[in-house]
Structures are given as structure tokens and as C-alpha cells.
Amino acid sequence: MRGVRISRTNLTRGALAALSGLLSGYAALAVAELASAAVRPEAGPITAVGGAAIDRTPAPVKDWAIRNFGESDKLVLQLGILATLAALGLVLGLVALRYRRIGAAGVLGFGVVGAAAAISRPDSTGVADGMPSLVGAVVGAVLLYVLIGRLTARRHAPEQGRESGWDRRGFLIAATAAAAASTGAGALGRTLNGRRGQSAVASRAGVLLPEPASPAAAIPSGAQLRVAGVSSFTTPSKTFYRVDTALVVPKVDATTWRLRIHGKGVRRPLTVTFQDLLERELIERDITLTCVSNEVGGPYVGNARWIGVRLADLLREAGVKPPSRGGPADQLVARSVDGMTLGTPVEDVMDGRDAMLAVGMNGEPLSFVHGFPVRMLVPGLYGYVSACKWIEDIELTTFDDYDPYWVKRKWAKKAPIKTQSRIDTPKPFARPKAGTVMVAGVAWAQHRGIEKVEIRVDDGPWRPADLAAQHTVDTWRQWSFPWKATPGGHTLTVRATDRTGEVQTEKRTGTIPDGASGWHSVVVTVD
Known about the structure:
By secondary structure, the chain is of the alpha+beta class. Helices cover 34% and strands 23% of the residues. The strands form five sheets. A five-stranded mixed sheet has the order 4-3-12-7-8. Strands 5, 6, 9, 10 and 11 form a five-stranded antiparallel sheet that branches. Strands 13-14-18-17 form a four-stranded antiparallel sheet, with no helix packed on it. Strand 15 (450-457) and strand 16 form a beta hairpin. The radius of gyration is 29 Å and the shape is globular.
């Protein structure tokens, strides 16, 4: 019976040691969250390690994450980091039960990793970014050392004249106090970090967008089809796709925001404020954006009404000339406040298209997730080479001299949007009734426009679809086809032709290195 009692005691101590490791990790993260309020929210260990993981993840893996988790990819990453830390905490707790100092040192080691990740981030402000992870790790290590001490200490029982088991009361008091204090520290840290963005929120609330000097043309009444299931011609801001690497959405105060334009071929370097932009001649345009991570038939494309300043006007004011006119710079590198860099051909920005520094979207100031206070747009180019959010710096350079963030990760240096089309309705594996079934969707070839869309049923001939009214060459175009559906299984396929005469290719490729290609198909069963 005594052997069974000892075995049960050891099991209990082992379970509590693992719990001690878990609690120590929780305390470390909570204290680090509080400490990050003294530095900046992005210096927190979860954000820093997550950002470093994103930076070092191979492009195919990132693409897989976007494809499978969509806009929840960052949440999945953060939950994965937390799960990993929890597992490591459990292990370190068990190790500490036998090797107390080694277990505590392990917690400190993870703090060093977090600090290194924070300092190595592109947007790091210096060694101070490593402080939250280190402070949290020290607290976590000390807590683990103390808790394990309560589990290994021998308690003297005077009434029995001998030493009895470990200090249960001391352990429970220490563990409960640590859990409560950690929860309070974490909550306070989140509150303080949330307040750091209040000035940015207030600055956005105070923005009144001026009337554009060059308003967008009215959208033709026939641009939006009256077909159930087809995408809205104008994508609401709240449902507009978001693909970026920011684990913490930057909240930039528009009153302190500055944009610097400098570099090769810049004869008059510029620094402009948000108010400067609002006081300039604004243009308003409907432009469809597409993410290079959009698979054939994917959701990462949307159309919105943007208002902003022509980027070419600012570049000319700075004395910049495109390469076709003898300018020495062929690449414009846009930098975001979070350290992201995007490279855009100078020639494309200055060839007359409506490239802009946007300050508004669908009649309102940009939302924080879409780049407030200012983002860049260049019609006809995938977002990773043109649509810099939270922009703060523009440097003129060359493609030979500098590789931006995504190019370093094996994506193409130049990426014009490919001619694509998508079936919105019927959905894959739908079961429509026999008779006339309306097949409809969207097609896009920004800065070229859509000339024709065709539908094929099974292996039959290509048949022309009915096109909705074309708004501009920079917006997508809706289409529909009244299909005389017969019972059985069928495959519906779509392809588009742009206004240059280029037919959407059948060749299926992935998104890497310069965007997906191929025909979109859906399989349905007609009842």
C-alpha cells in the first residue's frame, strides 16, 4: 500500500510540475504583454516570434496557409505558437522537477529567442524591442523555480516527529497568486497597448475627405447584373479581402504621419503630411485590386472606389523621370511602417494610369486594416508589387540594386495582373433543377479591360456569355450565360479574352512566382 501511495504522490507531483511549467509560460507572456506597453505592441513575444516565423516561412508554405486558412491565417499562426509554447512549458516543468535550474534556464532561453526575433524584425526600433520578452522570461523562470521548490521541499510534521510530503499549501498559494497576478498583468498590458492607438483612432474620426477635383465616372446601370449569387460590382469595405503579414494592424496617427520621397534621380526630395495630401488635387477612381495569392477562381479580388493623389504628380514634383525619358531609376520601393517593402516599376507608375496614394475607400477614410492613413495603388499590377499599406517612405532605385520583401522570397520582380475569370454561380457541387440555369460571374484584366467571356459545358463548344456594361478598363466586368441544363453531372468552364486580344490561358499554374493561371471550372449535378 505504501508503494501505491508513493506512486500516486509522484504522479501528483509530476502533474503539478507540468502545471508549474504551463503557469510559468503564462506568466512570462502576460508580463511581456505588460512590458510591451512601455515599448510598443509589436515588441510582444507572440507578435515578434510570429512575424519572424512569417519572414522565414518558404513562399509555398505561406501560399498554402493563405489558400487553406484565408484571412484567418494569422490567427492560426498565433494559436499554433501558443500551443507550442504550452507544450514546451509542460516539458520544462517536468524537467525542472528533477533539474530545477535547467528548467528555469529553459524558460530564460525562450525569452532570448523572443528578444532576438523582436530585434531582427524589419520594423524593429532597436534593442528595446527585445526587452518585453526578456522581462517576461525572467519572471517566468523565477516563478518556475519557486513553484518547483514548493514541490520538492520536505515539510516537517511535529505531531508525527518526522518529515512528511511536499508543501501542498505553499504550492497552492504560490500558484494561485501567480495565476491571478499574471492575468492582471496581461489585462493591464492589453489595456495600455489599446490606448496607444487611441490617437490614431481619433485622427481617423476627424478626417473629412474633400470633394475630388476629378470625380469617378458614374457606374453604368448595366454594370451590376441582377443575378442571384454574382459578386457585387462594388465590394463593401468590410468584406474587401485582406492579405498581408501584419500580426498587429498598425494604427498610425494621421496628424503625425509623414511620407518621404527620395533616392536615385530625385532632384527635389519631398516630405509630405496627411494634410498636404488632402489639400492637393484629388482624384476618385473605381479600381479592382487582385492579390497574387489568388488561386484560379479564388476570393482575393475586389473592386472599390478609391480617392487619393496621383503618385506621378508627386514624383514629377520631386524631379523624377521615368526610364523612357532618361530617368536613372526603374524601381520605386515603397516602405510600410511595419517594415514591409514593395517594388514597383517607375514606368508603370508614370505612364498615365491612375496610380495613386489613396486616402479614402468607398466614400470613407481608409480603415486601419486597409492602410489608414495612406496606401498606394497601381492599376494593373498585383498587390505585392503595388499596393503598399501604411506607407511612409518611397525610395527611387533600380531592380538590379534592391530586392524587396517578396522578391527575396522568390516571387517575380514584375507582376502585371493576368487575364482571369471566375464562376460565382452556380457554386461547386450545386444541384440546380433542369431547365434554364443562369451561370454568372466576373472577369478581370486590369488596365486592359475585358472584351469577351465564353462558357463551355462539359466538352462542348465555347459559347459567348452576355457581358455586363464595362465601367473602365481598371475594373472587373460581370457576365452571365443562360444555360439550358439537362439532368446529370456537368462541368462548367469559363475563359475570358482581354481587349488586347489575349485569351486566358488553359495552362494551370500555381500562384508562385507571378500569379495563378488556368480556366475556372465548377462541377454541378442537375436534378
